[in-house]
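As the next step, I needed to go through one protein, both as residues and as discrete backbone shape codes, included below for the reader:
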Amino acid sequence: MNGRLMLRIFACVVLLPATPFLTYSHAADSGEFKGRWIANGTQTLFPFEKGRQVYTFKISGHVKLQSSIDKKKDYWSECVGLADSSTGIIGRCVWKELAGPEIYLTIQSDQLLQGSQVTGTIVGGTGHLAGISGDLSFNWSSVIVMKEADGTVAVTGETNNLGGRYRIP
């Protein structure tokens, strides 16, 4: 048998059956995003040192981007965090695609008030967004804190200048 015929037989017998087991990956992607975020939830006062206000919070809401991350512009956000009037606010957030992977973020700020500057870091994701990294920032354009009749403290916040950069490996 000649070499070409052997190569064809090898390709048909060995390589062709292995084709379904090959994995496909997304190409690296990076860019900038802009948009808005509307979130609401609750905060719970934590008894601490006199004159120092400490509370936990949990908020969720819609992230609507004008420019996309990985061709997606709509995410559902969920955040939990700790606020301390002496040291500031730290939070952990998940942005969920409606039918797909998640993006994980850390956020920090001096306070949860209208006009407060918030910065954050994109620290990872799931699925094809695993390994995503980047940064973001925004100012709260409005924050409303109301004590409900049952004692629950409700929080609503909105920002119109959410922006950042991302990189998907």
User: Anything to note?
Assistant: The chain has a mean pLDDT of 88. The longest helix spans residues 3-18. The domain at 29-168 is CATH 2.40.350.10 (AOC barrel-like).
